[in-house]
């Protein structure tokens, strides 16, 4: 599996340190707000787990499964809600925890949905930001790392319908011959 990686963009240690940094900032920004942290499945799982351990404010966590990739390497533009929240966002401060902000389509739809459901505020924390991939006008509020336009895997990010590479402890660029 590691041999399929062209280069490592973000190491396990860098991720650990960034989660501490982001957790500290979120702790301060939300110390008296008791926000709902929403993880967008499945890629967010390692990030939300490590991030939550570093937030010292009261938080509630819920998950939503929203897809726009459907097994490929690029967003299809079709947004599907596969699993909705169990918790109401009405009257809540919401923090969306994302593994990566790429095209921005999915995120923009989810933010709009939460606002229409009565969230007091909706902010985004992302481990990875890929601004060169952006198709819609959207920015994360808290960014771990800005990365180039490349197909990345690891630390929750997968390739294909088989979801390989999510278990890598780092973020790496997948060799083109693996997916071409």
TrEMBL record:
Query: Which SUPFAM superfamilies did the record assign?
Result: PRTase-like
Look up the record and name the pathway of this protein: Purine metabolism; IMP biosynthesis via salvage pathway; IMP from hypoxanthine: step 1/1; Purine metabolism; GMP biosynthesis via salvage pathway; GMP from guanine: step 1/1
Any coiled-coil ranges, and where?
none
Q: What is its EC number?
A: 2.4.2.8
Q: Which InterPro entries match?
A: HGPRT, Hxn_phspho_trans, PRTase-like, PRTase_dom
One GO cellular component assignment for this chain's record is: cytosol
Q: What is this protein called?
A: Hypoxanthine phosphoribosyltransferase
Question: Would you identify the family this protein belongs to, as annotated?
Answer: Belongs to the purine/pyrimidine phosphoribosyltransferase family.
Q: Which GO terms describe its molecular function?
A: guanine phosphoribosyltransferase activity; hypoxanthine phosphoribosyltransferase activity; magnesium ion binding; nucleotide binding
Q: What is its main location?
A: cytoplasm
């Amino acid at each position: 599996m590691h041999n399929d990686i062209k280069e490592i963009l973000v190491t396990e240690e860098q991720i650990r340190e960034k989660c501490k940094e982001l957790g500290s900032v979120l702790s301060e920004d939300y110390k008296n707000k008791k926000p709902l942290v929403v993880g967008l499945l499945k890629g967010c799982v390692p990030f939300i787990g490590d991030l939550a351990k570093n937030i010292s404010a009261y938080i509630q966590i819920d998950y939503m499964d929203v897809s726009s990739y459907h097994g490929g390497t690029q967003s299809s533009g079709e947004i599907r809600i596969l699993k909705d929240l169990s918790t109401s966002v009405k009257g809540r401060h919401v923090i969306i925890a994302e593994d990566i902000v790429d095209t921005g389509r999915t995120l923009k739809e989810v933010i709009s949905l939460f606002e229409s459901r009565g969230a007091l505020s909706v902010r985004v924390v992302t481990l990875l930001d890929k601004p060169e991939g952006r198709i819609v006008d959207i920015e994360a509020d808290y960014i771990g790392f800005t990365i180039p336009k490349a197909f990345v895997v690891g630390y929750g990010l997968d390739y294909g319908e088989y979801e390989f590479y999510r278990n890598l402890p780092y973020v790496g660029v997948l060799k083109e011959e693996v997916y071409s």
